[in-house]
Amino acid sequence: MAQAQEDGDERKLETVTVTGSLIQGTPEDAALPVDVLTAEDLRLQGNPSALDLIKSLPVSSGVLGDTNQFDGRAQGSEGSGTVNLRGLGASRTLVLLDGKRLASNPFAFAGSGAVDTNILPLAAIGRIEVLKDGAAATYGSDAVAGVVNFITRTDFDGFEVGGDYKFVDGSDGDYTVNAVGGWDTDFGNFLLAAGYQHRSELATTERDWAIRDYLGNPQGGWSQVGNPGAFLPVSGAFSPTGGVRRDPGCGVIGGELHFAGATPVCGFQFTPFDNIVEEENRYQVLGKADFDLNEKHNLSLQAFYSATEVPQIAFSPSFPPVGGASGPTADASIVAGQFFVPTTNPGFAALISQSPASVPAGTAGAFLIATRPLGWAGNALAGGRGSERSFREFEHYRISAELKGELTESINYAASFTTGSQIGRRTNEDTVINRYALALRGLGGAGCNVAANTPGANGCLWFNPFSTGIQTNVITGATNPNFVPGAANSQAVLDFILEDTFTEQEYKLTVIEGVLSGQLPIELGDGNIGWAFGGQYREEEFDRQFNDIANLNVTPCIATVTTGTTSCAQPVGALGFLAGSRPLNATQDIYAIFGEMNLPFTDSFNASLAARYEDYGGETGSTFDPKLSAKWQVLEPLALRASVGTTFRGPALTQVATGAVTSLQNVAGTFRAVDIQGNPNLKPESALTYNIGTIFQTGNLNLSVDYWSFDFDDSVITEPVAPIVAAVFPSVGPNNCANPAFAALVARFTFTGPCAATNVSRLNTQYINGPNIKTSGIDVLADYTFEDVFLGGDLEVGASAAHVLKYDVGSVTVEGITAGLPFSAVGFLNFQTIATPLPETKLETYANFSTDNTNTRLTARYVGEYEDQRASLFTAPNTVTGTPILVAQGQTIKEQLVFDSTFVWSLPGDTTVSFSVENILDSDPSFARLELNYDPFTGDAVGRTFKVGFTKRFGAGN
């Protein structure tokens, strides 16, 4: 909106951004539903972090941000965050900084194009505008569910410093420091802002609710693959000499006496080694300059850098090897596909000495069954509580330049160039399969001469997989009476069998855009017709690289690390659990033209028309999307607004490029590698959307109610894992391994043995144009101010609510088989479906009392109950007899109600202090039948916290 300001005898051009329209002069209370949060609003809420702010928004569901390593949609993204309007998926919400696009997080949601909101420098933000309406006609792809526009402060003159510290029970607390400087000169305004945020590690063991016993939640981080584990004694001819035996030290060291069918195993709980919150460090610097070149032209320059470090993300001490070693050669196992341990292994010999009955006569060794290298003893390479430690890093930079002004008295222009990149780096430690197999036979160690066949001598090392090598349960502190010092594993042998994988991914985005706008010499009842017309070019580039051990081009086979071979039937890499992948570099160019018209028919009724044509080229093709919106001021206090149009999202670059993204997902009760292949034949997804609302404003009352609806076609999804697995391996009746109709679907699986759910090592999926999705709901915003109620202060009460009425998903077909029946996602957890968790109702209410120098705010946040679609009754083996019993809990995820309070005190000298208590009643998150016993996409896991903050201003400021 262009406004004339008198500054002495000079006339200064000021441009105000209004999210949702390209026409300068569009009023901020136009037909579109836009919520606005100012820096002052955030200050009165205690300056929440970007994650806390987004999670609290009723219109946002299924938010990525808290540690959630067990969900394929969140893996690799620890330390990043997203906004997910309407629960339609983070990639369907367009996130802008000063109206310009940001490069996506290269790891978020398997590379689907979501922006990392944690990179944003909140100290520099003056306001946040949330457009809750499809806006592809204006902004292009990704603005399906709406737009969140973070707008930096303008005309700031002075200097401001601030910070806060949050006390979190069980951790070292969280703290932030920030500074903002602004200089207003005769020829322009300059802004420089910097911030640092720190989150401290919070272990799962610091919260009683996060760790439950086996019968409390069999899916709460429990695995039937532990250490100690189980083994099958064999003779010198490798014939079984008895049935599978559970390590006799299982219960002594802390394992659970479980059965996998009729097979005795030693249950292991890995979540005590994990965190609820990872340590995170963030750094942000933003600088911008606005130059008034003359009265009619303005140049804006902006540079922005952000870095996030997650230095020591915690995992299980080691991952379970999915398959066996290669062989039979001297370089691996003596028997192909098996981990063989001879009775000469010192750990095995000690076990036999302690428990002779555990090994029948004639036993020459054993095959390991349901075991992992490290369990209750922890990982000695990591220290601390024995968690395997990896890191995540994200770096984001962006530079932008915009020239805007007046071409004529009736035509304005804006031309901009923006380029940016986000780089993500991550490591994970895993077992090198053949090295593990060698160490079990006493041939481990970097200095071992395997050909000389001198087990345990001349630099060769033994690895002990049995309980005799475990001195202490590092979680409980209990000592193991069966520990044999000479059978302990050395750090040297751990260094030999464990190796770090490294992945670096980068997403680059360059945008060139030009817009003309103005007024036509055609006057309607309330003024001239406004118009805007423009074009945009976007170049996207994605690059993915690995270190050698994770790169299938370098290490394609299990035996590559020991024999050097690169030829194998199944190129799955050399690692036991994490899947190798291949490098990828891909680019795409996108062109768009767009236009908009504002029609002021009368002083009480106006309408707007917008349309956009966007071309992706290739098989993806193009899309055309129009939109009509209108507002009618029926009475002075009452207005009606409505919009209807089509909106779209083009597939992300990683979704159409050749190559795969690999995630780890629960397949038949165990985490397995799931590849998601790119699909160059994807079409853009589209949706018909409309919004009908009413606005009522009178005196001190403001009320708006909106009904919204989206009807999707060709939704871009990943083929859903759980329905594919269920189709091949139904819970009732025989599997479909030999069913000819399922042959193509069965071929998607890689097995370590015969086709069976327990033998799955890998699943191949891809991006597809999937089912129709129909969703609708109601949003409500209300506030009322009581003036001069006490001590001259005002009391404001308000509420914001989002209620989803419908979220219907059509069937999904994979390889000609219906792999997902139609279902309703609203009010459900949506485990391993194409939808994120979607509570039916989210509500935030507040009461705010303010005087001249104080402000007290009480906030209540409510999330309605929702259901876990999985069966409410599931079987869990009795830990003694193996007889199935029924465990009935976890289907209903109960409603959550959390209260927060903030007190802000303005002191002399432009100093402000604040005191906040979050989760006043210290409410636990609602129980969900997931690894961490709550839903990280929705719940508040930290508990009651106390925060103190301050801000000091020097100079005028704003």
Give the tags.
50 strands, globular, mainly beta, five-stranded mixed beta sheet, about 950 residues, 22-stranded antiparallel barrel, single chain, disordered N terminus
Please provide a written account of the structure.
With 958 residues, this protein is mainly beta. The chain has a domain of 215 residues. Helix content is 7%, strand content 46%. It has a 22-stranded antiparallel beta barrel. A hairpin with a 6-residue loop joins strand 45 and strand 46. The two termini are 20 Å apart. 51% of the residues are buried.
Number of helices: 11
Instruction: Please estimate the helix content.
Output: under 10%
Q: How many angstroms separate the termini?
A: 20 Å
Largest sheet: 22 strands, antiparallel, barrel
Count of β-strands: 50
Radius of gyration: 30 Å
- The unreliable regions are 1-17
Overall pLDDT score? 88
β-sheet strand percentage: over 45%
Structure classification: mainly beta
In brief, what are we looking at here?
This protein is 7% helix and 46% strand. A hairpin with a 2-residue loop joins strand 32 and strand 33.
Give me the secondary-structure topology:
Elements: E1 2-7, E2 10-15, E3 34-38, H1 39-44, H2 50-56, E4 93-97, E5 100-101, E6 125-131, H3 136-139, E7 146-152, E8 158-168, E9 174-184, E10 188-199, E11 202-203, E12 222-223, E13 230-234, E14 245-246, H4 250-253, E15 256-260, E16 263-269, E17 275-277, E18 280-292, E19 297-315, E20 340-342, H5 346-354, E21 365-369, E22 388-408, E23 411-431, H6 433-440, H7 491-497, E24 498-524, E25 527-546, H8 560-563, E26 584-599, E27 605-615, E28 622-632, E29 638-649, H9 653-656, E30 660-667, E31 670-677, E32 685-698, E33 701-713, E34 716-718, H10 721-728, H11 743-746, E35 749-751, E36 760-769, E37 773-790, E38 793-809, E39 812-814, E40 817-820, E41 823-824, E42 841-850, E43 854-863, E44 866-867, E45 873-877, E46 884-888, E47 892-893, E48 896-907, E49 911-918, E50 945-954
Parallel strand pairs: 4-7, 31-36
Antiparallel strand pairs: 1-2, 3-6, 4-5, 6-7, 8-9, 8-50, 9-10, 10-18, 11-17, 12-16, 13-14, 13-21, 15-16, 18-19, 19-22, 20-21, 22-23, 23-24, 24-25, 25-26, 26-27, 27-28, 28-29, 29-32, 30-31, 32-33, 33-37, 34-36, 35-36, 37-38, 38-41, 38-42, 39-40, 42-43, 43-48, 44-47, 45-46, 48-49, 49-50
